[in-house]
Design brief:
The chain is 38% helix and 15% strand. By secondary structure, it is an alpha/beta fold. The N and C termini lie far apart (36 Å). The model has no long low-confidence stretch (mean pLDDT 95).
């Protein structure tokens, strides 16, 4: 996928880094990442990956947003209390970067 003008503008601060450039941003845009958990560790990961332009995110979590999550899991907010963390994560990603394809799996990961 070639970056159009809107994506070039969105990611311009990354693209000017010689180690990334337009080629690296294209790789990010075409990449796929699985994030297990949308809580204390997953929340910042989801935010950074979607902001950086990782094109495809899959988020797995089984929990619902609770008020006690809000002080440290900043992708969730008061409007999302009671919904699944995956749906809340999707809302966050779509508002931050509508160019990200996000897939949700509402399931507990076990060995």
């Amino acid at each position: 996928m070639n970056l159009d003008d809107e994506l070039l503008d969105r990611y311009s601060r990354q693209i000017i880094i010689p180690e990334i450039g337009e080629i690296g941003q294209n790789k990010l845009t075409n990449s796929k990442v699985l994030v297990i958990g949308a809580g204390g560790l997953g929340a910042p990961v989801i935010s950074i990956l979607s902001g950086a332009g990782v094109g495809n995110l899959t988020v797995i979590d089984f929990d619902k947003v609770e008020v006690s999550n809000l002080n440290r899991q900043f992708i969730h907010n008061s409007k999302n209390i009671g919904i699944t963390k995956t749906e809340s994560a999707k809302n966050f990603v779509e508002n931050l970067n509508p160019f990200i394809n996000i897939n949700l799996i509402n399931k507990k990961v076990e060995d």
